[in-house]
Specification:
five-stranded mixed β-barrel, 0% helix, mainly beta, OB fold (Dihydrolipoamide Acetyltransferase, E2P), two-stranded antiparallel ribbon, 96 residues, elongated, homopentamer
Chain lengths: 96, 96, 96, 96, 96
């Protein structure tokens, strides 16, 4: 899974019918401290994440293993909200 | 999903029989403002997107979860047309 | 799908039994004008493509959705020969 | 599979229900000597790996082929702890 | 498929039970001449490849389509040993 931050939202009226009612969040990969390091992409939210949250995203077919993404044409899902990260013995991130 | 712009079209007479009648659009990944940042690739259109539209693309097996791509040898599908993107509190893109 | 050019061929006597009789072509990703931009890789040919042709390749599980690649250990297939590409209103490639 | 080192841990209270009780480790890809070369990512541990261990990670749908990851929304799993690596005739890594 | 060279071996005592008896080889992607161009990774051998051999690797779910990798948590398999490569009319590699 990627460590990523929720940085925004997407509005899309015209979309595959299986996406109706699904929340499309703009996220960006981060390093272990929460610093953005990748290009923005869009993921379906399955855990009610909010803007600013550090989250985990699963991609590919794994993104379709949650109740709300099953059999849907989505290749990225937010499946966890990160409380804290500890790397090399240091707490590199803690949710405020 | 990637944020991408439809930049062109592909004509291919010789193709897998399961692709007959499918629209093959040339797209390019963009950032949250719609600025092109990646190499062009080709995606099947499932939402009647037009040239210039900012769209979402799903890749891999997820690209085969729409009615028109099911069981077909395609690894990228356009499954939404973006109306607007809001990032860090700013509207970074709005469909004109 | 990637836009790619067929640049060569592979001979492999020792291979998984399910690959017997399959044509293994060396391809390289290109931009919309047919200019090579990526590292060479190998794809199974499902449309009788020839050296020099610009083609579309599908990767991952999608590469196994053609009749000749079904259930085989291949992760890239050529599933279309490109006749022409039109980008931003210009014909950027036309098969000669 | 990627050669990677376990560098930390993730705490996430809010997560997909199928992830309850699963250990989420922070890992970083390394070269054949164990030197870190990639961005950190998060993988489910299926072999009781510890911080500092060099491990193998499988990604995508392959990450769901262990007993503890089956049908779960995870795209990376640690499925082996590396004892040693030998490259070009030299032992480039040995677990201490 | 990637063109890759077998450069070493991996010893891993602690691993997913489905990997018992499988050979884990260290490989590196190469260009069409056999020159190494990528980071090392680990693939299951399904064709009895030897160190130094130029091979083809399939990744993702496609890596699980051989008899010895079916339903196992592996995302890369060696499924062919390359005898020769011909690119742009030249023999760029021939097995010695």
């Amino acid at each position: 899974m990627l460590i990523a931050r929720v940085i925004g939202t997407t509005v899309a009226t015209i979309k595959d019918e299986k996406l109706t009612g699904r929340k499309l969040l703009v996220v960006q990969q981060t390093d272990e401290t929460g610093k953005g390091i990748g290009k923005p992409f869009v993921a379906i939210d399955s855990v009610d994440a909010g803007t600013g949250d550090l989250v985990l995203t699963a991609s590919g077919s794994s993104a379709r293993q949650t109740t709300i993404t099953k059999d849907r044409p989505v290749d990225a899902v937010i499946m966890a909200v990160i409380d804290s990260l500890e790397v090399e013995g240091n707490t590199t991130y803690r949710k405020s």
